[in-house]
Amino acid sequence: MSSAAYPAQPASPSPLRPIRVVLIQPEGYAHAGALSELVETLLYGLAALDLPVDFAVNECAPNATNLIVGGHLLDPAGLATLPADAILYNSE
Question: Could you read off the pLDDT of 47-63 as tens digits, one per residue?
Answer without folding.
Answer: 999 999 999 999 999 99
